[in-house]
Amino acid sequence: MPLEYSGIRDEHITVRNHVGIFDVSHMGELWVSGPHATSFLQRITTNDIDKLYDDKIQYTCFPNGKGGIVDDLLVYRFNPERYLLVVNAANIEKDWDWLNEQNINQAILNNGSDEISQLAVQGPRSPDVLQKLTKVDLKGIKYYSFCVDEFAGIKDVIISATGYTGAGGFELYFSNDAAVSIWEQIMDAGKEFGIKPIGLAARNTLRLEMGYCLYGNDIDDATSSIEAGLGWITKFNDGNDFIDREYLWQQKNKGVERKLIGFVMLDKGIPRQHYEIADKQGNQIGEVTSGTMSPMMNKGIGMGYVKTSYSNPGDMIYIQIRNKSLKARVVTMPIYKKDG
């Protein structure tokens, strides 16, 4: 997947307004199966696996036993004894090692990353494009759900609706030997809707407008799910005794010293990762983890960790860019709001 095809701005706006296709075959796919699959995943992920049902997807993360995050991921439930974990490309080996290290439940593990290709078709016209290639009623696939059916003449394709762009759309998982055929058929079906291939750079600007975390930037082994604003995927239900449960429970109840925020530049400037965040007096209060120029807002936007006292929507912060202290305002997620 290249950084860009026709240019970041053009690709970004294409996805927001029309439809784009991403080759995300670099992502990892790890299978967890057997009679102990559910209990294993309940212990190693922060969300509540017991809330999942067949053909449903859950966003969650692996706590690392030290208060940080091994990775964030999607869990696809096929049945109580078969799950697919979709993990970040850079963490495939790390996650695979972690699963095996923690597998005291004796779940059956299989790394299918080298055998599976994945395409993401995103944007408001994505259902129109893909419906031409399957008999499955795509409107019937609810958000964070999936089915397995024939697509573009290929059997047993996983068709899911999650998305990393905030523009709506679907993900397709299939064997590597079908990749070229499916790509070409989607591109042909999408001509009338202005479909374009989209690169990694626009994928990043799209997810940043939505305030979606990127592993390695906004979350990592040194950040907790509570600090990262992922308390909604950290479930302390009775019986959900996951790794780091007590530590994260204490953070939730006692509070944290820093929080991940989204912000919009008020002064002209583009924030970048590792730029210092300061208060009005110039004292450092945090650091930018992700930043860009928003193609939809035509303003600099970003995410970063700041002292909790500066994390409230509306708070004024200052981004240190080229020896200048530029004003920015903390905002609620998503950073880009379609209604203004």
Summarize the structure in words.
With 340 residues, the chain is of the alpha+beta class. It has three domains: 8-26 and 115-208, Probable tRNA modification gtpase trme, domain 1 (Gyrase A, domain 2, 2-Layer Sandwich), CATH 3.30.1360; 28-111, 2-Layer Sandwich (Alpha-Beta Plaits); 257-331, Aminomethyltransferase beta-barrel domains (Elongation Factor Tu (Ef-tu), domain 3, Beta Barrel), CATH 2.40.30. Helix content is 20%, strand content 33%. The protein has seven helices and 17 strands. The strands form three sheets. It has a six-stranded mixed beta sheet with strand order 8-9-10-7-1-11. α1 packs across α6.
Annotate the secondary structure layout.
Elements: H1 8-17, E1 20-23, E2 28-33, H2 37-44, E3 56-63, E4 69-79, E5 82-87, H3 92-102, E6 108-111, E7 116-122, H4 126-131, E8 146-151, E9 154-160, E10 169-175, H5 179-189, E11 196-197, H6 200-210, H7 245-254, E12 258-265, E13 276-278, E14 284-294, E15 299-307, E16 316-321, E17 324-331
Parallel strand pairs: 1-11
Antiparallel strand pairs: 1-7, 2-5, 2-6, 3-4, 4-5, 7-10, 8-9, 9-10, 12-15, 12-17, 13-14, 13-16, 14-15, 16-17
Helix pairs in contact: 1-6
